[in-house]
Amino acid sequence: TYTPNGGGAAVTVDCPLASDGRLRSAHNVYATACAGGAAVDQTDTAGPVLYAGQNKTTKSPYYRLHESFAEFSLANVPTDATVTAATVSCMLKGGYPGNVGSVYVCAYDWGDTLTSADWRTPAQLQALGYSASLYVTSLPIGQRYSFMSINLKDKVSAALAARKLRVVLTDARLYHGYAPIGQQYVGLYSIEGDTEPDPLVGQVVSTLVSASGASGDPGYVPDAARVAVLDLSQHLLSTADAQAEGARYLALLGSAAYHGRITVKAPTVELHGGGTKLAAYVRAGETVKEQNAGVVLWIRAADYDADSSTLTLDVGVDPTEYRYLPPGQRPARRLHDGHLQALLAVNELGG
Fold it and tell me: Pick the residue with more confidence: 215 or 189?
């Protein structure tokens, strides 16, 4: 997020990943592996995964250390702007995040071509300092997470003239020079790991109303159309951008708007924001909470049949607001493949 030169409203922009790569330094002696140099035995700028962390194995070379490097384009930020906030996010691919602890982002200009000379020793990493961190222990893979920013906006400001920000990613143990005790590294999607076409990159498409109707189940039952929602909470998008992404997705489905029909056979309906209401008194313009995923549904039309005690709702998304699945109610479904992404924003639509 930045303020234009001369004042005005704050502007939020995306600073996309332009290039990335990774290095591995491996040796039977930990100090030698930390030092890099001839111990750097892997340089990869085309693979789908970036690794950060360390690994101790029972086979030579015993210590296998990983650092990754990324470059973010700052072309969307004027060189004379005042940067007021910045964050970076990543998509966890795999590895052993439960054993890693924290991943650090350190501002470091590794040049136009990644080489073994770009390996950073623990002392060099500490001299750089870390500008953002993410505690990955217990985080499920296949989802996007935002790093906690330390002084990232200052690093972005310093890099505006160069029109790019380059960083190195490492884990807290390697940063401090602590030897691993096993598999302690994490995988992040690289730019090559982005295999899905827009607008599905890094997004969840989840069914709001799933098949139900088992014996004794008073829940929501789907009628005709499937109701879907895009979970954009892992992207820090402006309202206009989020609505544009939703429109693009709906265009792919051949649908003009989020829509669907559900029948409620329970005597009461759970309202968004808490509380319940008798089904017979639910009206258009109100919002209810879908039972399975907890997603807010806006009622376009409501019809209650007294003879069958059935409420039929035409539901969708409030046309004046792009609604999001709150993080605490997000269904446990796998995200589409995405890539490391830097964004100069922390706003109410972000995860």
Answer: 189
Nearest CA to 269 among 308, 309, 229?
Answer: 309
- Tokens for 191, please give them: 């730019």
∠ CA 227-90-62, nearest 5°, is: 130
pLDDT (mean) for 312-322: 58
> Are 70 and 340 spatial neighbours (Cβ–Cβ below 8 Å)?
yes
Q: How far apart are CA 308 and CA 249, in angstroms?
A: 37
Return d(Cα 233, Cα 239) in angstroms, integer.
Answer: 12
Instruction: For tokens 């998509």, name the residue.
Output: 91
Mean pLDDT of 320-343: 35
**Distance (Å, whole) CA 307 – CA 106:** 66
The pTM score is: 0.60
Strand partners, 205: 230
Alpha-carbon distance 101 to 205, whole Å? 30
Task: Kindly report the backbone phi and psi dihedral angles of residue 85, in degrees, each rounded to the nearest multiple of 5, phi listed first.
Answer: -160, 150
Say how far apart CA 224 and CA 246 lie, in whole Å.
Answer: 21
**Helix, strand, coil content of the chain in percent (nearest 5):** 15, 35, 45
Cβ-contact 171, 101 below 8 angstroms: yes
- Say if CB 309 and CB 303 are below 8 A apart: no
Q: Residue 321 corresponds to which tokens in the numbers above?
A: 């607001």
Q: Which two tokens stand for residue 331?
A: 């269904």
The arithmetic mean of pLDDT across residues 248-275, rounded, is: 59
CA distance 34 to 55: 12
Task: Kindly state the tokens that stand for 75.
Answer: 């072309």
Tokens at 135, concatenated: 């505690």
Distance (Å, whole) CA 343 – CA 334 = 22
Q: Which residue has the tokens 């002696």?
A: 29
Contact 63, 80 (CB under 8 A): no
- Residue reference for tokens 């052993």: 96
> Is the Cα torsion angle 54, 59, 62, 65 positive or negative in sign?
negative
